[in-house]
Amino acid sequence: MRDSVLRPTCPIATARLLLRPFAVSDIEDVWAYQRRPEVARYMLWEARSREQCRLAVDQMATECGLAAEGDCLSLAVVWPEADRVVGQVELVWQSESDRQGEVGYVFNPDYRGRGFATEAVRALLRWGFEELDLHRIIGRCDAQNSASIALLERLRMRREAHFVDNAFVKGAWCGTYVYAMLQREWRKSRTPANGCGPS
Asked: Around Cβ 4, how many Cβ atoms within 10 Å?
């Protein structure tokens, strides 16, 4: 347990996006994707009603820093050009002594194909490795979730495990892929090679 809360300097700005804490006023933008069955398909929750989404946003608005193991930092991903929240990213502090974390993400499919998820999760990895000084960050996804698999691989995370039928979710057994990256791998991925930076 730490005496202080670790928070990123917000907003975290990328080339096209801003990552910031959630506000209660974000409900309409968040409900625009959390109510959709195709978004909830690989989540533990079902497509949400507006009231369920309001409660989720209220909770995420409190998740603005990390004080102890198990805490979750949740950030809204804003596309300033449209003045909309287009998704959410999170970092869970799994272990202080082992310097471990886990990233998560959910995005509005209306903005698919623009690279927003890759850009936003990469920014969160940067904060986790460079500011929080994590040694290892993982990402988990359903083994059937091809979009999430592609995202984690674009981020140059390494598939470490395939758990077969390890979870009974929504009435069916599903498998899980676990991806990971070490701090030294992150630093290597950020080092330009032959004059070119990481893709």
From this structure: 8
Residue with tokens 């995202």: 151
Is 167 within 8 Å of 125 (Cβ atoms)? Answer: no
Residues 6+ apart with CB under 8 A from 122: 14, 155
Say if CB 11 and CB 20 are below 8 A apart.
yes
pLDDT tens digits, 121-168: 999 999 999 999 999 999 999 999 999 999 999 999 999 999 999 999
d(CA 141, CA 118): 15
Structure tokens at 70: 């198990």
Q: Where are the alpha helices (DSSP H) in 15-145?
A: 27-34, 37-40, 50-62, 116-126
Distance of alpha carbon 128 from alpha carbon 99, whole angstroms: 10
CA dihedral 146, 138, 13, 54 (to 10 degrees): 70
pLDDT class of 3 with cuts at 50, 70, 90: low
Mean pLDDT, rounded, for 85-96? 98
- Asked if residue 39 has pLDDT above 80, the reply is yes
Amino acid identity for residue 175 in this structure: G
Set out the domains of the chain in order of their start, with CATH numbers.
12-138 (3.40.630.30)
